[in-house]
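User: Is it possible to get a 3D structure for a protein together with its bound compound? The compound here is zinc ion. I've pasted both below.
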Amino acid sequence: MERENSYVSPNVDLEDGWGDEGSYEQSMERQASVQSAGIGGAGVEKEEVDKNGFIVQKLENIEKTQWRIVRETNETLGLTDDQSIILLRAFKWNTEKFQDKWLSTDNHSKLLIEQGLEFDQKIAKSFPYVNATLKSANQGYCQICYSQFNSTNAKADSLKCGHEFCSGDWTDYLSARVNQGFQFCISTTCPQHQCNMAVPHSMFVKYLTGADLKTYQKWFCKSYTDDNKKVRWCPFAGCDYCVIYKDGGIMEVNCKCGNSFCFKCGQESHKPSDCDNTKQWNLKNSAESENITWIMANTKDCPKCNKPIEKNQGCNHMTCRLCRHEFCWLCTGDWKEHGSATGGYYQCNKYDAAKKSGDQTILSKEKKIDDAKNELKKYMFYFERFNNHHKAEKHAKELLPVIQNKILMLHDVKNYPVGELNFLEEAINQVVRCRQVLKYTYVHGYYIKNEMELNLFQSMQEMLEKFCEHLHELIEKPLDPYLDPNIIERTPFYRYRDEQFARGR
Amino acid sequence: MQYSSAVVTPRIMKETKLLLEKTPPGVRVTVSEENPRHFLFDIQGPPGSFYEAGIFKVEIFLPSDYPMSPPKALFRTKVFHPNIDKVGRICLDILKQDKWTPALLIEKVVLSIQWLLGAPNLDDPLDTSVADVFKASPEHAEKTAREWVQLYAK
Ligand SMILES: [Zn+2]
Ligand SMILES: [Zn+2]
Ligand SMILES: [Zn+2]
Ligand SMILES: [Zn+2]
Ligand SMILES: [Zn+2]
Ligand SMILES: [Zn+2]
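Assistant: Yes, that's possible. Here is the predicted structure of the complex:
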């Protein structure tokens, strides 16, 4: 319990700093209450593990978890906060690994010296001047500001090594380190040149105030999340959730910000493509996106009247505004040929198959692809489809608030029970999810080398394309006819719903 | 404490006094008359090195947040050395923010620079073309270094 008070500095500025975020003093109190309530007791926050085995939490909750681990380690091994924090960091916050190491060795001082928690006498011997800052060796002068130690304004302080500097210098020094950035902050050692002592948490809290203390807290938390294989920051801009991995085999995180990402590599969700291929693909895209690929992927000429059309809807079923010709966005083939009568909506996902089988109908449709012999053409083929799903995903996401509004209206104006309307929202989420997966099927496909595997993969891809395309078309249908208050007949709406169910299940 | 660049802190005063009274061997120091944070050193090449016959002018400037930030040091004499580039910048660990500590002194910096002249570090070169000469043909490197001493460091 004494430890509890020892690191709360009298310098902590109650007005400024943590106070406005309501976190630092409070978190100190919370920590105290965690301590008094016992580990796992009433003071510990609730953890909601989602179906994939992740806990999605705000930063301050992560800090609480971090402190709980520190306290648990303290209690188990009889260490101080400062010792546990530095040692756990050295073991990348793998508590078990650290405890095993600590309990299986008698030579604790070796470990403590390595981590800068005990002074290394060997250094003092090989670098004689390492002793120069000791008060006795230094004629009572502070080696940083050259004030005399016995004067009232120069209160000396040191780590265990005994290298003394006045409190004002400690503040300046630690403030400089914290503001130089994360790496500087966590590698701060005693100001004495060559001294191995690490500056522990308690010193930062003792000497920093206001904005500096706040910055320090950020780095303190980052040292836990960065080192920890079980914690990751959400990669989407503006999101300040952290994710803790509990258990389970799925590495995909559904963040509370509405986005999903891969826990393993921190990129946007990329099933079924793997982390390395996805990284490679994204690098390639950022290098190529500037050039003509981009333009090609975003506008196309109507195959009948040759007027340029920009794709602004999610589904691939295009109708030219001028000549009303219906065609497929991807292969520019007639939409009629994409019906179930021709054995599937999609033949346009097959790149190599079209070339190799020599199927004339496909070959003629895939005009641009037909003569594709080089790498760039192949890449453009895959990129176009990748980008197409990417944009469709965006469109579907934008549709969500519109549909939510329509649901309210259908409920208010036509008195449909909410339970009978939820399918609309579910359908959109399904489409978004499908688009995400389909997007990355093209990354996966791009890197497949084996032809058999590619054929099998493409037939599965085709099934999903077909399903997703149809569902997307359905949800983009205007709902306004069903909103006419003069029409009481509900059958058309239920027919529409049943059609979605047939597709969605 | 925040120091403005014009202000000379007790530490700088004490350091200056020490430098003038107990100047290390092989070193001469001049403090700029306009700016007490600006020093000019004449550093003798270490005996036994390629640079032994030369006197090298090195400028040292103390930034406003000294000693929290390291001093800035620059060679004012041309020198053929893998860790010193054409404009006189020096690649020395304690002059970098992550290795500098406020308990180090100007004197220590000057002695380290002198030591660096006698111990070129080919693993961390600043001027790679010079380092290549040092690696490929030490004799050629020695010849050029000694020629430059005769040309510029007298
Ligand atoms: Zn001091
Ligand atoms: Zn020390
Ligand atoms: Zn997020
Ligand atoms: Zn991944
Ligand atoms: Zn047209
Ligand atoms: Zn098509």
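Residues 375-414 of chain A form the longest helix (40 residues). Residues 111 and 399 of chain A are 58 Å apart (CA to CA).
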